[in-house]
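Let's practice the habit of predicting before peeking. Look at the sequence and jot down your guess about where helices and strands might fall. Then scroll down.
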Amino acid sequence: MRFHVLTLFPQSFPGPLADSMVGMACHRGLISIEVTDIRSHTHDSHGTADDYQFGGGPGMVMKPEPIFEAVEAVLADLDLSERTGAGVVLLSPQGQVFNQKMAEDLANSSSLVLICGHYAGVDERVRQHLVTQEVSIGDFVLTGGELAAMVMIDTISRLVPGVVGSMDNVTQDSISSGLLQHPLYTRPAQFRDMAAPEILLSGHHAEIEKWRRHESLRRTLERRPGLLETAQLSPEDIEYLESLGYGRPKAQS
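Done guessing? Here is the structure:
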């Protein structure tokens, strides 16, 4: 997996990615993160990458020419198969909200070009004629798309085989299963006046798995009930949720 980050602030990278599992994956050649300064594709002595809005209004707008040229230069360096499977993503508050399912879909790309938005936004022609997807990491506004790009890189990289020690660690993560993770405990079993649940110390693996499933369902219902609408639920799951007062969802095969 190759990530190509287009930004006005290349010094922001690799940032925290260098010291994480992602950094180790880069050293091992499992992924690569290549950063392009959008200003390097400007054609004036000042490196002008933004301009005033047509029609007036607050804030500057990122110009289309350097963004188009930067993306085209990245794609030109890819071989044909990579170019065909490459995604061009604009990081923007107006985009579709990033989630685990989107990360899984994007992880199937051979390369991802991530355009970091800034200022009031980018020229609309970038949206209409260049990007394949527009992505937001949440309903809030950042000063730029760099942090959002790092979030996407971290999340998608974990799905690349070999980056995480065992893919079981990935598939069993909170959210990956469609539900929030069950509570976790480790030694000591008794800490001050707080004890780990006895069921987890019992050695009864079937009962432990049942407890974990119930706690995952309970936590999801309490904190993110909307996830239950698309989660894979068995008849036993539905019965347990109904005992907690949840409305009747449909079982999925």
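How did you do? The radius of gyration is 23 Å.
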